[in-house]
Specification:
Layout (H helix, E strand, L loop, with lengths): L3 H12 L5 E7 L4 E5 L5 E5 L2 E6 L2 E6 L8 E3 L6 E5 L4 E5 L5 E6 L9 E8 L2 E6 L4 E6 L4 E4 L8 E6 L4 E5 L2 E5 L5 E6 L5 E5 L2 E6 L2 E6 L2 E5 L10 E5 L2 E5 L3 E6 L6
Length: about 260
């Protein structure tokens, strides 16, 4: 038994010594890095304008009446979800950043006060209803919503999802839901400020450090030669993009062994 504390310490040190491998660095002048799709196109905002630059070409979307962009979901690059929290509105864009549809939650028959909105597929959005403190699925074709979760306490800090799962991060808990309304897991929030989710990988940001989830445990990811504080983060498959306000640093993700 006397070896157990030593073995535990060595195991922890090994798992927390995983290091991101630097791939490239690209200068970028932007307010925020919003995403990078599977084709290598970069999405960012500058002066309330959404930009897309990359192999597909250079495009812009502007709607100054809606104000500042809160989030951009590009899990489906053919149907991009742009959320404007201040005006309670979502805009759907195509791959050229042309407007497909505008969803104003203030004007639908059953008013929704939305804190976050991400793509759930099949004409649906994962939304967090601030009035009921519930995660819901909203169909923007029929203007109907389905309550998924029981109301839960805490302030929503971040929401990330794909078509099958949705993570909600509050100041108290990190929860995982499926589209049938089942809460698959609930763990302490670990003081995370933001989440990254792609291809079943989950990373949490805390005080300028990254932590990768393996089962229900988060392990520290070392960032080689960090120069400036992390401003924005993107996870796309096995690639992590870190924006420091001047440069996008691209890293390859190494998964800790189980």
């Amino acid at each position: 038994m006397k070896w157990l504390p030593i073995l535990t310490l060595l195991c922890f040190q090994f798992l927390s010594a995983q290091t991101l491998e630097k791939v490239s660095s690209t200068p970028l002048q932007a307010d925020h890095l919003m995403g990078v799709d599977h084709f290598g196109n970069t999405y960012f905002t500058k002066d309330a304008v959404l930009h897309k630059k990359g192999p597909d070409g250079n495009y812009q979307y502007t709607n100054f009446q809606l104000g500042e962009i809160t989030s951009v979901d590009i899990i489906n690059p053919l149907k991009i979800i742009v959320f404007y929290k201040d005006v309670n509105t979502v805009v759907l864009l195509d791959n050229r950043l042309s407007e497909i549809e505008l969803v104003n939650f203030n004007t639908i028959p059953d008013f929704l006060n939305v804190a976050a909105a991400t793509n759930a597929g099949n004409n649906r959005l994962w939304i967090f209803n601030m009035d009921t403190q519930q995660l819901e699925l909203f169909n923007y074709r029929t203007n109907t919503n389905t309550a998924l979760s029981q109301p839960f306490a805490g302030t929503l800090l971040h929401q990330v999802s794909d078509f099958n799962y949705c993570y909600t991060l509050t100041n108290k808990k990190l929860r995982l839901f499926n589209p049938y309304g089942s809460m698959l897991s609930e763990i302490p929030s670990e003081d995370f400020e933001k989440l990254l989710f792609s291809n079943d990988k989950l990373i949490g940001l805390k005080k300028n450090t990254l932590h990768l989830r393996s089962k229900d445990v988060f392990y520290l990811l070392n960032i080689p030669s960090p120069e400036n504080p992390i401003k924005d983060l993107v996870l796309r498959g096995d690639l992590v993009y870190i924006y420091d306000g001047n440069t996008v640093h691209k890293f390859s993700l190494t998964i800790p062994k189980k």
